[in-house]
Design goal:
Two copies of one chain form a homodimer. By secondary structure, the first copy, chain A, is α/β, with parallel strands linked by helices. In chain A, 39% of the residues lie in helices and 23% in strands.
């Protein structure tokens, strides 16, 4: 049995992230939290010697990045400040067409480095090269729900037909196992890019193997307008009509929605994956998250890929989410600090398929530890407020995933950072050279 | 003569922050940059031995926080998620009423620690206890334009009449000296809180002593509506009518403005101090910065005070500013990376009253050095994009203000961090106890 005892200045516990234990202790056995409370009573249960002294730190439930395209780390910064079609046609797609499965593997490793440094213990992905992503995530010992893209003209398989052959054969025997850190879902890109015939195939495969369906829905206004023209209904209504909402839907964006959509989202138990920074930067809008929360719709938070955001850090994303909802609703009370933290942690875990009630007994031992060394963490009048509004991803000192320390004293325990960074720089340079032009 | 030579992987130079020198060198003599370029030619000019090896770093012009209320560090986190009047009446004002000049001194020192750690070499302030703020800023060796608040019922002087006596006596012999790091301006709180009679006095004193007038203008919709009712014109039109715009106006917020205001802002050479995060969080709105820039109006960026934001870091503020303007204008091309950086650096220096063209020969040696150690800084496809969208305030490794290293290898060179943090925690606890209640 592996035992780890953590002593911390503050622990944010409870399924609502609003129970603060000062001078607290956490006891982990194997992959599970077995005791939590004031330091002394928990300490009395400790039999081993593995102790982490974090008395100038805060322990929070681990963050989850619930929507990204992780090999896009390689595309970081290749294009900002451009209209969508220029961005796609002149930069993103030409880059992706030149990406190999090995490139995607290294790009994922770089993404895992960044996620780990940001205190993120799991991510939900939609991209090509699912096997490369899986290999990298397993090496990083990070949680991942990898949803291979169903999309036409992918760099991996070419046509939609070939992509489907590849994806369906990959997923045919892939029933998610909650005891594994890494699992597959399925990633039909969006209703406007995947024809009806294939959406039915997706639904059938998802039903057969209990796969989560990770799909972009109602991201832009023009996409919704096109859907109304083509199908007489919004993308959300459309996938509902096709029966996809009988499965577990992880719906990225949901920016441009209306009453009719909300009813479906609520009744079908859809989880919204909210990406506030990407939505601003790509001029998609601000998703009405406060309404979703009012209605009891599930919401988790992600960053989107590095080509559009351009980082994978979640604390800044939660801060942006909270501020934007106050602005949108004209009500400062919405999305309070604890709720924002919950969206980025416990709700993300749920979307990943992990049953966790945050830092509570019998929950999985996924813990993010923030150092209080920066001046922005003082004074500590309100700990959760400081986390959301003052701290940064860079305050993360340690990360425990499923009971294992993958980041310790700001040092990676699972990955060779220097090698990965060097490799990824070379890959990006190679592809940009091949493209023959790049906005500097 | 003091000489310092810096070798860096990248230097962001030029008055537009868009000239990137790879493997560059900077030579500083006393308080001035005397040479900049590729490393070898600059190195050949070096006579001394003081060399800073920053070959895994980026050097940018120093950031400026152009609007804050610095002793509010003590109020960090005491209230979020509340309506404005509850926030003010139940939390902010009761706290401030109990703040002493010594408290403000320590609160400012904590603010200086945070600014320095965030690579910020100067700030523009409006608060009471100007002498405490000045004393602290001088100890920190940071640039500051301190604008004592003209406001009724201050904790320092009580009535507006007494406040004016104090402020005017303080400023009577205070002509700004650009060779000093710390100077005074004057801070009439806002047209809705300062009666006409005192606005005239402010104007007179500012004219006499060449003081910048630092004022809140057109922050909220209700303030503008009230001004239309009371004066038949907007706050900006009103101060223009009173003649204040003949002086140098530093106008915080300018969120709710119209054509008529823009004309005045342009013609009177008003500088807008934009605080995007505070404006979202306080539900004031999004200032139309892209319009101001189109019209050639000066814009600098600030964080506002810690009671409303809740941190003083500028990189995140610039990222928020850029994203919000794309959203507001529905045009991703507005406020591009270099322009965002310029607003937070060169434009801020100008607002402070320092003539600087960024990292160019003969400019003041105010330099912020960012480490590339975090994975979010890789690959380096676009350096300025990485600074604005991927990096964080915590990447700052060193800060040079006016030729002096005030932060070196993430260690403070001017302030005793441990003592200040301890003192400020005690002060906040004392005041909160006196208040008898606090939202946790």
């Amino acid at each position: 049995m592996n035992e780890l005892f953590i002593e911390a200045k503050y622990i944010i516990s409870g399924s609502k992230c609003n129970r603060i234990i000062k001078n607290g202790g956490i006891l982990i056995e194997n992959d599970e939290i077995v005791a939590i409370g004031k330091v002394e009573p928990v300490k009395s249960l400790v039999s081993g010697h593995d102790k982490l002294d974090r008395t100038n730190h805060i322990v929070i439930p681990s963050l989850v990045n619930s929507h990204t395209h992780i090999p896009e780390t390689l595309l970081r910064g290749i294009c900002d400040d451009e209209k969508l079609m220029t961005w796609l046609n002149d930069y993103i797609w030409p880059f992706e067409r030149r990406m190999t499965s090995e490139d995607a593997y290294y790009g994922t490793l770089l993404g895992c480095l960044e996620l780990i440094e940001s205190g993120v213990s799991g991510f939900i992905d939609q991209y090509f090269y699912a096997e490369s992503i899986k290999k990298a995530a397993k090496e990083a010992k990070i949680r991942a729900l990898i949803c291979p893209s169903v999309f036409d003209n992918t760099p991996e398989s070419g046509s939609l037909e070939n992509t489907w052959k590849h994806v369906s054969s990959l997923l045919n025997n892939s029933i998610p196992d909650t005891n594994q850190l890494v699992n597959y879902g399925i990633g039909p890109h969006a209703p406007y890019t995947v024809p009806e015939e294939y959406l039915y195939k997706v639904k059938e495969l998802a039903a057969k193997n209990s796969l989560s369906i990770h799909i972009h829905l109602n991201e832009t206004k023009s996409e919704v307008e096109q859907s109304l023209k083509d199908f007489g209904m919004s993308p959300i209504e459309y996938i509902h009509k096709l029966g996809l909402t009988e499965e577990k839907i992880l719906a990225a964006h949901c920016v441009n929605t209306q009453n009719k959509d909300w009813k479906i989202m609520k009744e079908s138990n859809i989880t919204v994956l909210h990406n506030p920074q990407s939505n601003l930067k790509m001029t998609s809008g601000i998703a009405p998250i406060y309404k979703y929360l009012e209605l009891g719709i599930n919401v988790a938070v992600g960053t989107d890929g590095n080509a559009s955001n351009n980082d994978l850090g979640m604390i800044e994303e939660l801060s942006t989410a909270a501020m934007l909802q106050k602005h949108l609703s004209q009500n400062p009370k919405v999305l309070d600090n604890s709720q924002a933290l919950r969206l980025g942690t416990i709700n993300g875990m749920k979307a990943l398929g992990v049953q966790s009630q945050g830092i509570t007994e019998k929950s999985k031992a996924d813990l993010t530890i923030l150092s209080l060394e920066k001046s922005h963490s003082w004074p500590q009048n309100n700990i959760v407020s400081n986390i959301i509004y003052s701290s940064s991803s860079s305050d993360v000192s340690d990360l425990i995933i499923n009971g294992k320390l993958v980041y310790f004293n700001k040092e990676h325990q699972t990955l060779n950072k220097e090698k990965i960074i060097e490799k990824c720089s070379t890959i990006s340079e190679r592809i940009i050279t091949e493209m023959g032009k790049i906005k500097k």
